[in-house]
Amino acid sequence: MEENQGVTSISPPTVFADAESPTELGELCDLEIEILSFDSSTIALRLRGHDWSWDGEFALQRYPAIQPLVADEIQPFVGRSDDRVPISEYLSEFVPQFLLEDFDIVDRDTLLEANKAGEELSAQTLAIIDWGAEKINIEMEKPEVGYAKALSIFDWTRSYLEKKDSVFVFNDDGAGEVADFISLELGADENWISFFHCKASGAEYAGSRLQDIYDVSGQAIRSGIWLSNRRLIDQLKHRMGLPGIKGIENGTLEMLSNAFSPANFQKLRFRNVIVQPGLSASKLKERPEQVLVATKHSVVAAGFHEFLIFCSK
Which is it for the CA torsion 162, 166, 169, 173, positive or negative? Predict the structure, then answer.
């Protein structure tokens, strides 16, 4: 437990290599859980951190909901130094929500439907960029050492934030990220905190490929949990201490925290941005568009005031 300005907060559980080891694999909120395969009675999961991963196979039952297929299988343990349980026991007690391909959500035995059949994305949602004119390689997500022929999508996003005069920029790229970039822009009437989620194109040409939007849409939806001063600031402070996280590129955390202050809160707005040049606005097909419509509804429901997609013509 941690005391902070009279408010008691509970630090997130830590993942350990085993029941007794002092080796910490990371905090649970920094890890990613990926479903590798499943059927009506079993599920295979991958737990992934900054520089490690672990695969496990489990039986699905009524309770405990998740049990190892092999009774003596070595599992990571979750908790604290003096109180740990196997990952299967933790997931049975705190069952994660599962995000389906159409962005409906399974919460225990309840299906939460997010898809809005027949609805189209508005022109205000799709921001078309001439990536060729910007000298961007749409298949290159991050800068590559020794590659000087074109810029990456990260390079473009960073340049965009500079042109927007963002007073605060945080690069959080890595497992368990809040977003690839978090920024703050100050205005006379509105202050905008923006979450940018960047993804490279799956081909050298833009189209309407589902694989180009699944991961980045999921990232956009998950970032809705951070629309809180304490939670966001505490998480970014924590992320700054992790290996491989670049952290603050401009400004200070105090600037970001001040945007949540009582004097400024009425001006505060939140923006959720997908940067995916592999998506073509003119070639967008029905199912990919419905996934993006569902993403828009999810992020608006989470508290974002604006949802944008930077894409191709």
Answer: negative
CA-nearest of 153, 156, 129, 157 to 141 is 153
Backbone phi, then psi, for 247, in 5-degree steps? 80, -140
| Whole-prediction pTM | 0.72
The predicted-structure confidence for 5-21, as pLDDT tens digits, reads as follows 333 344 678 899 888 88
Cβ-count burial 68-105 (b if 16+ within 10 Å, e if not): beeeeeebbbbbeeeebbbbbbbbbeeeeeebeeebee
Q: Residue 197: beta bridge partners?
A: 274
Paired residues of 57 in beta bridges: 44
Q: Which of 29, 80, 86 minimizes the C-alpha distance to 56?
A: 86
Residue pLDDT, tens place only, 21-60: 888 888 887 788 888 888 878 888 888 887 788 898 888 7
Q: What is the mean pLDDT of the chain?
A: 87
Under the banding of pLDDT at 50, 70 and 90, the label for residue 175 is confident
Using 50, 70 and 90 to split pLDDT, how confident is the model at 102? low
Of 308, 283, 97, 284, the closest CA to residue 197 belongs to 308
